[in-house]
Hints:
The structure is a homodimer. By secondary structure, chain A is an all-alpha fold. Chain A has helices spanning 10-32, 39-46, 50-56, 60-65, 74-82, 87-101, 106-118, 120-131, 134-153, 162-187, 212-232. Chain A contains eleven helices and no strands. Chain A is elongated.
Amino acid sequence: MPETTTPTTRESKHQATALRVERNAVRLVLQHGFDNVTVDMICEASEISQRTFFNYFKTKDAAVIGAEPPHVDEAQARQFISSDSDLLAELLTLMTTMAANLNFDEKLLTDRIMVFGQNPELMHRQMERMGRITTEVTELVYLRLKRAAGATSGPTGSPVNEPDLRDQAELLTHAIMGVLRFVAMRWIPTPDMPPVPGASTSDGVSATDADPAPSREQSLEHALSLLRRTLRTP
Amino acid sequence: MPETTTPTTRESKHQATALRVERNAVRLVLQHGFDNVTVDMICEASEISQRTFFNYFKTKDAAVIGAEPPHVDEAQARQFISSDSDLLAELLTLMTTMAANLNFDEKLLTDRIMVFGQNPELMHRQMERMGRITTEVTELVYLRLKRAAGATSGPTGSPVNEPDLRDQAELLTHAIMGVLRFVAMRWIPTPDMPPVPGASTSDGVSATDADPAPSREQSLEHALSLLRRTLRTP
DNA sequence: ATCGTAAAGTGCAGTAACTGCAAAACGCGG
DNA sequence: CCGCGTTTTGCAGTTACTGCACTTTACGAT
């Protein structure tokens, strides 16, 4: 190998390795199924030792669904708080954006979605990871509710029950998490594709360059309209 | 032990053993924490071999959160479909009832709730197990929605979009799962807040014989009123 | 360019969850 | 009491994951 060791800084090298491992993990799982892929296989493909793998990722799952925890964008959060239009819609887009942001690589994102289709338990882990920032999101919702309540009632009088507003925010957040689940399910291509290992079909490279982005946005729009209609007639 | 061989039939013995293991598992986890309890410890306490343990329970988690999957009561389902009052409320009570039904033992139920308080990941597993019957519940909601739609529009004309109704039902189910999460969280005595005011001993052993049942119902009522208020003013 | 140091990578040994297999123990009907 | 099917068990093996000690590497200071 004529190339000397890459002159990259430590951090970028770390990131590169992490990305490489994640890609290999997702690829292998798509090929053979989650249970048939060992950590050692991922390590060999990624040219790192098993011990290093567990330095990068806390669990095998983490490498497949992604290591970085989701986080809320500052600007987006501020805008969300001070907005006054459809709360549910904005909350939902806020969270879907979060999910998409930590999968900046489109190929990796679509592949992960496919993995989720074949391994429902991983989907649940992902949603659980999302749930970890429930408190953050709840805080945002609370701030917005509080602001809105203060704006309508005026500075003078009607006592807005603070704890109730907190509860309301938390309830809303949990409910929207459920809706997010629903939307995420729509992103999965088709659950009736048997993940037969060594299948006769091509190795899955071709299917990814369809247009999934509009499909994702469409399904989100659909869910929103459905949600509005559902809530309008209880 | 000079005990004569238990005159129980095979099945009841099996059930008895399962219950005994579950109780020991929950007790040990409450005492030492989930990660500090090995399967072997549960086995020794329950006087079975490790291999038998895994014949009874698929995983270690299963013994702690309960083996039997939740299922919908026939009569209750029928009543739900043909009812016309508050859909969200009835759906929520339906699911909470399910959760409570598979914990017929009150002590075991409260202990499990405490375990969930100390081990959030187990709570998520439990909710995931709940999610497994999402399709069933969705079907119920769909049937109710369809019936209601048919009743209002009359047999003659307006075309009720079937797939849309299905989507609506699924969306609703997912959302209510989120609300269920919220309610379940309220059941947890959470951060060192004993269920009974005045008992400052807090050794964790005795606090269980308080009256948590009304508390559970109260929190459900609270959540419902919150939900109604939230949805009324979006 | 070289060197010292701290961080990153690695090997190894160990723990614990879980599985398959075959033998042993047991319950149940005859 | 006896055969027979089910349950339980021991045992060996796989795999995820961890702690520890050691080597390698990157990077700043000289």
